[in-house]
């Protein structure tokens, strides 16, 4: 039994039209019948959040994949934490590596986005992760530690925060770190959180993300200090995502 209630997050990225909402009904139905000892959150594209919230009707949670640093203003094409909250989203992912890489998001911006989201009452998932080069050079722990320290502002509300460790080379690649590598990184993150936030640091869930599928979810979730998963490709279809929920439910 895990000390912290696990959090399983599906990140649909830029995938999903209205027709895909049937997948959410199937996921929400399974959660009601299985009653897993885990929180289930799906982050569809912003265009579907409103409808998604209506469909799941509180059976699972719905979140955003990103938010702006400001609450309102002249930021064409952006979406604010207030807008997410207004649509009924409970949570938001900030600092995903695709946002950092494709949109030049810095650690400082990620910290400001997290603050904006907490102000609007959202639960925040802050993503970090090393590149393949950093892993190869033996500086993965240091790189993630620095990224984490700069991406978290002061006064982090632990109850409304999770960290997602997503090695960039594992995202969408089918390559998974070894159990030892995951355990080493999660222990490193936990030590950092404990040192910086004391008792509150122990409440922050640390998720693993990168090529999680039904076949490996159970083993990964069973590792110490792995308090959940952030799942991309395998969250798009209910049949695969439900298989993950079933697989992990056996041990939780
Ligand atoms: P993946 O993506 O599960 O498809 O590897 C994970 C993520 O980017 O959050």
**Which hetero ligands occur in this complex?**
2-phosphoglycolic acid
| Shape verdict | globular
Model regions low in confidence, pLDDT < 50 over at least 5 residues: none
Protein structure class:
alpha/beta
Q: Overview of this structure, please?
A:
42% of the residues lie in helices and 15% in strands. The protein is α/β, with parallel strands linked by helices and 252 residues long. Strand 3, helix 3 (81-86) and strand 4 (91-94) form a beta-alpha-beta unit. Helix 5 (107-119) crosses helix 7. The protein starts with 6 loop residues before the first strand and ends with a helix. The mean pLDDT is 96. Bound molecules: 2-phosphoglycolic acid.
Defining key terms:
globular, 252 residues, 10 helices, binds 2-phosphoglycolic acid, 8 strands, alpha/beta
Short overview:
The chain has 10 helices and 8 strands. With 252 residues, it is an alpha/beta fold.
Describe the secondary structure blueprint for this structure.
Blueprint: E1 7-11, H1 21-34, E2 39-43, H2 46-56, E3 61-64, H3 81-86, E4 91-94, H4 97-102, H5 107-119, E5 123-128, H6 132-136, H7 140-151, E6 161-165, H8 179-197, E7 205-209, H9 214-221, E8 228-231, H10 238-249
Residues 11, 166, 171-172, 209-212, 230-234 line the site of 2-phosphoglycolic acid.
């Amino acid at each position: 039994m895990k000390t912290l209630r696990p959090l399983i997050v599906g990140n649909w990225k830029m995938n999903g039209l209205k027709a895909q909402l049937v997948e959410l009904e199937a996921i929400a139905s399974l959660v009601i019948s299985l009653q897993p000892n885990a929180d289930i959150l799906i982050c569809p594209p912003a265009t579907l959040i409103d409808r998604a919230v209506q469909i799941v009707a509180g059976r699972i949670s719905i979140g955003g994949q990103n938010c702006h640093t400001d609450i309102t203003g002249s930021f064409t094409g952006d979406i604010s934490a207030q807008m997410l909250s207004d649509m009924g989203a409970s949570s938001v992912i900030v600092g995903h590596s695709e946002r950092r890489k494709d949109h030049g998001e810095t650690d400082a911006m990620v910290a400001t986005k997290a603050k904006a989201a907490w102000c609007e009452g959202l639960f925040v998932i802050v993503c970090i992760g090393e590149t393949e080069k950093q892993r190869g050079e033996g500086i993965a722990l240091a790189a993630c530690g620095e990224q984490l320290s700069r991406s978290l502002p002061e006064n982090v509300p632990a109850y409304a925060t999770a960290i997602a460790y997503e090695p960039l080379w594992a995202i969408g690649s089918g390559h998974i770190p070894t159990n030892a590598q995951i355990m080493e990184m999660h222990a490193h993150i936990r030590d950092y959180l404990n040192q910086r936030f004391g008792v509150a640091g122990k409440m922050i869930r640390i998720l693993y993300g990168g090529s999680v599928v039904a076949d490996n979810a159970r083993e990964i979730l069973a590792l110490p200090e792995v308090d959940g998963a952030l799942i991309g490709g395998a969250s798009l279809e209910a049949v695969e995502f439900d298989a993950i929920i079933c697989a992990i439910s056996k041990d939780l």
